[in-house]
Design a protein that fits this description.
The protein has 248 residues and is mostly beta strands. It folds into two domains: 92 residues, OB fold (Dihydrolipoamide Acetyltransferase, E2P), CATH 2.40.50; 139 residues. 13% of the residues lie in helices and 37% in strands. It has four helices and 14 strands. The strands form three sheets. The chain has a five-stranded mixed barrel with strand order 1-3-4-6-5. The chain has a four-stranded mixed sheet with strand order 8-9-13-14. The protein has a three-stranded antiparallel sheet with strand order 10-11-12, covered by helices on one side.
Amino acid sequence: MNKQTISYTLLAKSIPEFDKRDGKLYTCSLGYSEQLGFIRVYPLPIVGMKKWHTYKITVEKNKRDCRKASWKLSSYSRKNNWVGFADDVSLISKPSQLKKDKLIALMSNCISPSISTLNKNRQSIGFIRADNLNPFWEANDRYINTCQIGMFDDVELADFTKYTKEQREKIARVVFKDGDGKHNLQLNEWQYTEYQRRFGAAKEAFRYITNNEPKVLMLGNMLQFQSSWMVLSIFKIKESTPQPLLFS
């Protein structure tokens, strides 16, 4: 498909990963485009685009990813360690409560009854309503103990790992129910590992995930295992939210 210039409101960033093929650190984003709907755009640099901000970007289909909702930036900056990335995006608008309300209303209109329904419909981005959530920290099997590494003079930890899961002792997970029953999925939004990096794996990281209001969970599946899902972000539903309108 040819390149398209779109508006894109970033809604979630995944925990950064290191691409061994390109030798670059990147994050995956999920967001909303008036032209394309809810999509993922990756790879993105770990800085330069912020949640709830709307940008003008040019995208094209990702040849490595056949999922319909997957796009990549039409940019050469990613091949040059993201030098010049600021020239690839232009800010359209900053966050506002009106924008948030309209986008959450759009998500609410896209809610599926279950993850099995998402799989049946071959969707790679989905929304599930959950009235009760149980977020928690679990031991990270990818954790590299830097104290042990320091015992050996000839072993160094790659610099990129300070952003990835390798230096986090815990990973965030969340338990919820849908039409299929109970699920226990990884909560892969970057903000939670950043909280852990700064303050430790404390329950306080989940202070905004309360059970006094219904939530809509934004899910994304995995490229290699497309029936496996992660929670990318959690939003509060306002039951009185009106039907969404387009915004600029």
